[in-house]
Write a structure and sequence with these properties.
- 21% of the residues lie in helices and 14% in strands.
- The termini are far apart.
- The protein has a 3-stranded parallel β-sheet, with no helix packed on it.
- Among the domains are: 56 residues, no CATH class; 71 residues, no CATH class.
- About 3% of the residues have low confidence.
- It is an alpha/beta fold.
- The protein has 3 helices and 8 strands.
């Protein structure tokens, strides 16, 4: 007959190692889950119909299809290269899907220019002109128009208003229109006018 006899000191030793033992169990369990995650695959839903996007040879402007969805096999935008997009008629946001590797070391430019928005964005407000004032920007967060009353010649910038999940995918709101002065004179022109008036 074999038995185990534990003394008071033996119990205190086993309790002292209990946190270490549980930590090791936790690390082992985390390692098993990490291995399982590595083995999982992800499908973006890309059909690959647009082929490979590779900007190694230079910058590129891509015309958006009506849906705004681009289906690539792979995407490579090297450092120093820029990808821009041409608006479609509905000005939808850009959705890029890829079946394989996506490497972006360069720039994807979605900026607007003047009143014209970037893909998925909203138009900026009209400039003020004689007989009519500037207009606020379009979109849910459109910027306020410039105003002589507020002393804000420049229109306020538009704000991004949308869900944090980015679904639905919408662009930013347009900035407000700038109030235009009816005339403007340079410092040199004012000096010349003052010199003429003094004669």
């Amino acid at each position: 007959m074999c038995g185990i006899i534990l003394g008071a000191n033996d119990l205190s030793i086993s309790w002292r190692y209990w946190p270490v033992r549980n930590s090791l169990r936790f690390l082992l369990l985390a390692f098993v889950f990490a291995l399982a995650a590595i083995g999982q695959t992800f499908s973006s839903g890309s059909t690959g119909a647009d082929g490979a996007l590779d900007l190694t040879a230079g910058d590129r402007a891509v015309q958006l299809p009506d849906s705004g969805i681009l289906n690539y096999t792979t995407v490579n935008i090297p450092a120093g290269r820029t990808l821009t997009f041409g608006m479609n008629l509905r000005n939808t946001a850009v959705v890029m899907l890829a079946q394989g590797a996506v490497v972006i070391s360069g720039t994807i430019n979605l900026n607007g220019s003047g009143r014209t928005p970037g893909p998925g964005g909203f138009y900026g407000g009209d400039f003020g002109y004689p007989g009519g004032g500037p207009a606020p920007g379009f979109g849910p967060g459109g910027g306020a128009a410039g105003s002589a009353v507020s002393g804000q010649e420049q229109g306020a910038p538009g704000q991004w208003i949308g869900p944090l999940s980015l679904v639905p995918n919408i662009g930013g709101s347009g900035g407000g229109g700038r109030r235009q002065a009816l005339f403007s004179l340079s410092a040199a022109a004012l000096d010349t006018a003052a010199a003429v008036a003094a004669q």
